[in-house]
Design brief:
- By secondary structure, the chain is an alpha/beta fold.
- The chain has a six-stranded parallel β-sheet with strand order 1-9-6-4-2-3, with helices on both faces. It has a three-stranded mixed β-sheet with strand order 5-8-7.
- Helix 8 runs antiparallel to helix 9.
- The mean pLDDT is 95.
Length: 399
Amino acid sequence: MNLFQKIYCRTYQLGMRVAMPMMPYREPEILNSVAEIPAILEGKEINKVLVVTDAGIRGLGLDKGLLRSLRDAKVKYEVFEDVMPNPTIDVVEKGVELYNASSCMAIIALGGGSVIDCAKAIGARIANPNKSLKKMKGLLKVKGPLPLFFAIPTTAGTGSETTVTAVITDGTTHEKYTINDFDLIPNYAVLDASLTLGLPINLTVTTGLDALTHAIEAYIGGSTTNDTRRHALEAARLIFENLPRVCEDGKNERARANMLKASYQAGLAFTKSYVGYVHAVAHTLGGKYGIAHGLANAVLLPYVLGEYGTVIHKKLKVMAVYCNIARPYDNEQIASNKLINKIIEINEQYGIPKTFDCIVEQDIPMLARIASAEANPLYPVPKLMNAKELEKFYYKVKA
């Protein structure tokens, strides 16, 4: 990246950092069980809701407790279960149609990051009936309160239940883009560990590493605050301690609860301090090839951290010591390498691949341009890279 581009990016990021304390950020109110939802709806005189989920959640029966609570309280509902990984604009529009045709008054998202992001996009379109999702791409373009919104994560990874972001895919171009607005923050986040007890080990690992990526990218970036650093460090510690426990015993409810807490705290960190090139590249792999976001992050994370080099050693040492991966007397390079190697060790232990065989070499320049457009100038990364420089990561993960 040339000097002019670097100056532009860093100036933009400085402006965002200065403006952040004045932004209308809010945290969702935390609930501990889906059984708490009907009383809130009754208090707001809401008698019909749209439940956004996916077929997998329904097949596992994870929606039964929620739907039973709604029925018992005589709250009517429509279930929209068409959400797939990397939700597309067309799927969002189907959800909007069902919401409007059924005269719903609130949205309940039950699922992983794709479900919650899809529900956010549905809410954004309801708030802006004459504005397409493409026109809401980027920063602060939703401009309207969403319907009352409950987010119930069934994975401990995305942190979508607390963030300003929804990630949507254009089904025609396969471009994956983000919508960022404070109105997308759910009103309520339901952190119910019992809903995550049956999560398969592969999803447990990839969603956990997704949350770890959020924590690390937020921590090593240039727009951190005391709060975001605290949230990121605590999220990383909880993940390194509890991810092996839930992989060994998926029914360990305390460890599952700690993973949900970690995901939530990582979400608090990155929604204010942003992410970095791991996410930008991962989004293009998801949009083009359908690679699950958490899996893409898990594969890319060690490569990107290694490429940042010495510029992140000081911060990674602090994190490594906080997470009991390194000792205070280790030098910065040794400590940071211990943390990166720990991530590699987790990947290898739980079968995370090092490469993807679906990447087509001819696609790489285009994918790198899209990743660069997402990241620059918004993401306050430790080391700036242009599209050409980002191409190296696609080659590193290409089989």
